[in-house]
Amino acid sequence: LQMGLPDQFYSLVWFISPILGFLVQPLIGAWSDRCTSRFGRRRPFIFALALGALLGLSLVLNGRDIGGVLADTASNHKWGIVLTVCGVVLMDFSADSADNPSHAYMMDVCSPEDQDRGLNIHALLAGLGGGFGYVVGGINWDQTRFGKSMGGQLRVIYVFTSITLAITTAMTLLSIPERPLPKSQSRKNCGKSHLKSPSLPLPPSPPVALGSASGPDDADEDYNYNFKSQNGVRYESHLGENVEPAESQMSMKLLCIAIYRMPPSLRSLCTNHFLGWLSFEGMLLFYTDFMGEVVYEGDPKAPHDSEAYQRYNAGVSMGCWGMCIYAFSAAFYSAILEKLEERFSLRTLYFFAYLAFGLGTGLTTLSTNIYVVLSLCVTYGVLFSSLCTLPYSLLCEYYQSPQLSSIHFCGSSEEGTRRGMGVDISLLS
């Protein structure tokens, strides 16, 4: 906005990434289900998408400076706007897409009884990370010695975020190793009427009894049988019948079939998830601008030495503190969510989150009092935590349910599709 991007294009910029995600993320999920990399099925995708997020972040926070080097002037930021828009799209798409193999990775390595806890920890850390991130954005670094030495507000945010992203990605990649999907098994199954990847790739294979004469394939089958008997979950990756070449298994056509033949329970869950994120993103993208323009009555396009521009900046900074409240409340709610799940059903908690968010945003539009607007940010955290955990918990329940899993999720001749956890997580996202 400060570089002169018209208001009507602001939301369109953020609209590009979800459309790309809708088209590409299911393909990424299918590829990760069948990835035969020696590093595992999920981690190569996490690494590649983290690099994309870092590159996009670099363009977002340095687009104006790079544009100035190219041909931009003080009144014309054409190249700066183009580079920043490209950075926003790449950063948002990569960050959102990386969440899907991360979720699948966690499902792979957790036993069923630990999956809800893993999802709650995931949301808790997302809330804490978001909270501290917004703290960095809320501080006026231009007025500090450190900020001046780094080159201003945007430079501090860029350095902080880049280092944090690099460290946390490395921690993820070096944590629990994955059991690679054997290439021989993938090739062997290509000629069959259906392809399924092995069940969960972790933990390590059980020891083979002394004197056993079983070959490598038998060992894989023994591993899969033992792991299924221990965890009772089957995450199979099959998109359609009569599939022959491996490349066709990841085609958009078969993914469209998987969407069209989506089990009714999953379709209902996806519809609710869509409505929840539709509401939440609408609030999230415009909250700081709402604080600057409505609550503080500022103008982002006013001259930089004017009072209206200063009011807008003050409102955006206060909006960052409001986002801190939302993020930390999400972390707190995630911490107690596991206890709440012992007393209430997942659907009850899901409904409560939507109700709380609806009341919170409704009251925010009726009041411009700064304290009321900030306090209602707590309801945003409740919804965010719920959106990050409860739909995936319900998806795990579907896979673990003997009735649903055998009929719809692990496939049947009537459905003609065998679904994979990676694909379904991507479709849900």
TrEMBL record:
CDD domains documented for this protein: MFS_SLC45_SUC (cd17313)
Transmembrane segments: 12-32, 44-61, 119-136, 156-176, 316-336, 348-366, 372-395
SUPFAM superfamilies listed in its UniProt record: MFS general substrate transporter (SSF103473)
Subcellular location: Membrane
Major localisation: membrane
PANTHER family associated with the record: PROTON-ASSOCIATED SUGAR TRANSPORTER A, SUGAR TRANSPORTER
Protein name as catalogued: Solute carrier family 45 member 1
Taxonomic source organism: Tetraodon nigroviridis (Spotted green pufferfish)
